[in-house]
Design brief:
The protein is of the alpha+beta class. 22% of the residues lie in helices and 33% in strands. The protein has helices at 60-64, 199-216, 218-242, 272-288, and strands at residues 13-18, 27-31, 48-53, 72-74, 77-81, 93-95, 100-108, 114-123, 126-132, 138-140, 144-145, 150-159, 164-167, 169-174, 179-185, 187-190, 249-252, 266-269. A hairpin with a 2-residue loop joins strand 8 (114-123) and strand 9. The longest helix is centred in the C-terminal third of the chain and has 25 residues, at 218-242.
């Protein structure tokens, strides 16, 4: 009796049970030795027996096989027919219960578009392993306890292009089996589609919204825009008239101010309408005083 790796399996109890007429129900058993060999005695000649692993009831099996319980054998049982000579050369493989779980992962990516691929394995509240997949895209994680906990794997990466990002993947499973394999595919998507707008984009966004709103509601905005333009024009004209100096001012009071100078003068701003009338009057007077040629 040996294990999967060919190592001897000592301390395992095997039994034979008669199934033919004359020996039905006849049972004998033996325990494998240090080298995995076993010998069952007391069988009747000319009978058919079933050889297999002996299953104990309750907890007595742990005391009988102290190292670790054998869950089953390959093959599960063998049929034997006894003759005059001993039966030799029987080989069986013992399978012990799995206390650990192996997990493998295959990551599918587009060639030369993704870098810094990392796979992380979590179980319960613990981060167990992190593996880099830059050169290889298939990995087997170190064994984890098969204790039935909730586990998950996250796969993240970076794109080689600035305006693109890689959508991360996550798979979940229970650590309750000997082995499980997962395949994930990493997808590259646009960063702008995910709302990652640059500083220049945020600065121009209000202006774009204002322009679009103005176009859609121009019939309501146009009267207000006209009024705003008239007010701005009036303010500009007033500033321009004030900057014209004394040409835009009219001096009142005594002209011979004496030592007092201009202390007693009163300056009044001429309106645009009065200024236009004055200009027209001057032009008309000039035309009347033209000298006729003789």
């Amino acid at each position: 009796l040996a294990g999967l790796k060919g190592d001897p399996e000592p301390g395992v109890t095997l039994e034979v049970v008669g199934e033919a007429e004359g020996c039905r129900g006849h049972q004998e058993e033996a325990t494998s030795g240090p080298n995995g060999a076993f010998r069952i005695r007391g069988l009747k000649r000319g009978c058919e027996y079933r050889l297999g692993l002996k299953h104990f009831t309750g907890g007595s099996s742990k005391g009988h096989n102290p190292a670790a319980q054998v869950e089953r054998t390959i093959p599960a049982m063998k049929r034997l027919v006894t003759k005059e000579d001993d039966i030799t050369g029987i080989e069986m493989i013992a399978l012990r219960p799995r206390t650990s779980m192996d997990v493998s992962l295959l990551v599918k990516v587009k060639k030369d578009t993704i870098k810094n691929v990392k796979a992380k394995l979590f179980c319960g509240d613990s981060h167990l392993h992190t593996l880099k997949l830059d050169t290889v895209k298939f990995v087997i994680f170190p064994s984890i306890p098969a204790d039935g906990k909730s586990c998950w794997i996250t796969v993240d990466a970076n794109s080689i292009h600035v305006n693109q990002r890689v959508k991360g993947q996550r798979v979940e499973f229970l650590a309750d089996k000997p082995f499980q394999h997962f395949t994930v595919e990493l997808v590259v998507e646009s960063s702008l589609a995910q709302g990652e707008i640059g500083q220049a984009g945020w600065a121009t966004l209000p202006l774009v919204i204002l322009l679009v709103t103005s176009i859609l509601h121009w019939d309501k905005i146009s009267p207000h825009a006209a009024n705003l333009a008239a007010i701005v024009e009036q303010k500009l004209m007033l500033k321009r008239g004030a900057a014209g100096g004394k040409s835009g001012l009219q001096k009142r009071g005594g002209q011979g101010g004496g030592a007092g100078g201009d202390n007693g003068t009163d300056w009044t701003i001429i309106s645009n309408e009065d200024l236009d009338k004055t200009v027209r009057y001057v032009e008309a007077s000039t035309k009347k005083k033209k000298v006729k040629k003789i």
